[in-house]
Amino acid sequence: MIRACQNLGFKGFQHLRMLLLRDLGAATSADAGVGAHVATGVGLMRSVFDEVAQDLGAALAPLDEEAFDKAVRELGSSRRLLIVANGGSAPAAAAIAFRFVTNGRSAEAPADAIVQQLTARHLGKDGLCLAISDSGMNAYTLQSVSAAKASGATVIAVTSYARSALVEQADIALVIGGGVGPWSGHGASSPVVQLSFLVGLQIAVAEATDGNLEAAEQTLEQVVALLNPPSKG
């Protein structure tokens, strides 16, 4: 796919995608009658919020429910969880790892791509790799996925594109909508949809796993203690 895009005169798949999103956004804006009154200030903010709300409402349309249930079971039973993401998906990986940890579930989300790959190599058959990539084409994330699979680990993919290298490599593919409105070229909805979905996935795992409420309460107590250390008098 990358070579085909380059033969057409684009730098790669991402370059083509961004231009298509830009053109689609411009066409949608014209069709919807989006004018100068929403181009700046609060009007623009309302327009962006309306689009994100609409995209959130439709984000689960492409999701395979059986795949989601299977992913919840795998996440709940795996002994080791590695979360890998790079680029724009990296903040979501860090956020969801924190949520798993605060609910009593050990999780790793290295920020460095090399550390991700090295960790993935040692996951083993009892490990699980949760790979997050909006495009499903991030080379660094794909390298970690390949390393995880080579170690025998299960790979769960979260992406917005059903036809992607990430989906091809994953054992379980969770495909969600990424946004197609006027502001999609700016990436308005994608990170919100992605993080919202991951939060829902983590909650589903917590609900399906015994003892998480108690673990969450204990973690909260630990956090409070860390933020309020005893005075030395």
Q: What would you call the structural class?
A: alpha/beta
Task: Report the principal-axis shape.
Answer: globular
The strand order across the widest sheet is 1-2-3-4
The CA-CA distance between the termini, in Å, is 65 Å
SSE arrangement, N to C: HHHHEHHEHEHEHH
Largest sheet: 4 strands, parallel
Can you walk me through this structure?
The chain is α/β, with parallel strands linked by helices and 233 residues long. The protein has a domain at 65-217: 3-Layer(aba) Sandwich (Rossmann fold). The chain has helices at 2-7, 13-32, 41-58, 65-77, 90-102, 113-121, 139-150, 165-169, 190-208, 212-227, and strands spanning 80-84, 127-132, 154-159, 172-175. The protein has a four-stranded parallel beta sheet with strand order 1-2-3-4, with helices on both faces. Mean pLDDT is 82; it is low at 33-37.
